[in-house]
From TrEMBL, chains A, B:
Species, as recorded: Comamonas kerstersii
InterPro entries, per database record: ACOT8-like_C (IPR049450), Acyl-CoA_hotdog (IPR042171), HotDog_dom_sf (IPR029069), TesB_ACOT8-like_N (IPR049449)
Domain of life: Bacteria
Database matches in SUPFAM superfamilies: Thioesterase/thiol ester dehydrase-isomerase (SSF54637)
Protein name as catalogued: Acyl-CoA thioesterase
Acyl-CoA thioesterase-like C-terminal domain mapped to chain residues: 145-282
Residue ranges constituting the Acyl-CoA thioesterase-like N-terminal HotDog domain according to the UniProt record: 39-123
Pfam families named in the record: 4HBT_3 (PF13622), 4HBT_3C (PF20789)
Amino acid sequence: MSTVQDANTTVVSGFHPLDVALRMTPQHDGSMQATAPAAYWNMVGPYGGITAAQMLQAVLAQPNLLGEPVSITVNFAGPVASGDMRIEAVAVRTNRSTQHWTVSMGQRNAEGEYEICTTATVITAVRRETFSMDSLDPPAMPDPATCERYDTQGAMEWLHRYDMRVVQGAIPTVWDDSGQESISQLWVRDDPPRPLDFPALAALCDVFFPRIWLQRARRVPAGTVGMTVYFHAGSEQLAQQADRHVLAQASAQAFRNGYFDQTAQLWDAEGSLLATSHQIVYYKE
Amino acid sequence: MSTVQDANTTVVSGFHPLDVALRMTPQHDGSMQATAPAAYWNMVGPYGGITAAQMLQAVLAQPNLLGEPVSITVNFAGPVASGDMRIEAVAVRTNRSTQHWTVSMGQRNAEGEYEICTTATVITAVRRETFSMDSLDPPAMPDPATCERYDTQGAMEWLHRYDMRVVQGAIPTVWDDSGQESISQLWVRDDPPRPLDFPALAALCDVFFPRIWLQRARRVPAGTVGMTVYFHAGSEQLAQQADRHVLAQASAQAFRNGYFDQTAQLWDAEGSLLATSHQIVYYKE
């Protein structure tokens, strides 16, 4: 879905930057050619969430796709460089109502060798309506319109692609090793606003800054190495959510010898879970 | 590690059933040949936890392995039949301190075609000692010696391989749709007792019965389709834990149109996290 915007936004060529990132050209060998999106640049490569969105899109674009995504696990194996990338999505097993995919993203390195920089597995399924309930209530949050927007002035490029309104657990402003609980709660949506779809939701699951920064009030190098998203929403719930703010919550369970985990929940504007997500994150201290 | 047992236990040929399951023969093409373990049989194939352990073992057995496991994601793509299986583990990317693996398990079907039944990705890493803390306290639990052991009489074969002592959230004895909170807390270890290692820990992460049974007090068909384990423990912590009971906790966050998620924590006997784990589970209602 593409959203034409005014010329004074950051939108490239009249298309939403997320849609630009998701543009892929099918190749003769069945793979997809895509581009590392400059609009989502992080410190040493694209924002991990946008890489996850691209890996998912490479599956969603396949003609033999069965159903909708239920799960994606993305492993960030190495840095993604600017320029072209090749994404290969293979349906390794198709059952009656589920389909299992393996996905790899690769680029040629400086020596001209093809290197895998990202791997993923995706499960898609045809779901039918049945007993459903959330076991986890969303935290009480003020209306997003009344919450101050996180100031991204001078921040990395990808942060400008999101409208974040942090209610609890904002990024520390003083790095004094004081530390606090590792939980963050915020409202977030694409900027410019864009109707939510599966790739956008996968990308949103990675918006949290490293939990170690909050727990320690110390800014140490950190980066996600693996991330899983379980999609509870189907396309109908995504359509109802449209471009409203998503309630996002994340916390860590353990920090141990260079790796911490993160568990996250994303609710729609009505308080129904859209996705739950998990990460294993490298930190250097 | 193998544990020789008395002849009157269930141990096959003097070896622990888990060690029997983890026996693999390297093939000329770099893959491993293993066997679907009868000692861990579930309703329509091996217990998912043992399949996860085998996928991990296929990585740990590689001569070019770097470090210890940090993460494994296993997707159960199709049923595993009895007999031989082929497990292929490929190091798709090796960095200075991390290594990324893709793993597939396959078997020949009745028509003689080779079919993938399980996929996995594994991240291994060389970890160094640094700031560590758990953000999640273990629940208060009585000593395992004082807890009643779950009676596995007449149960499926794999359940006899575990000594489970459920303190909270046992499998319902009356299926009356009454329902309750989806949380379970139990002590669990291999039976016969066996020193904990990474494959054993991966297997333990799948011991919980389907959360939908607890939430609904209704026994509906259910099966794990994807499972992730984040290993917080290194080999030193595993050695300290040895063969003592592990504290295991699991709950669901959402049940939605045929799939629910499960988030789980496993602590050692000293109350330090060994692993956190997540599943996406199919249910039919």
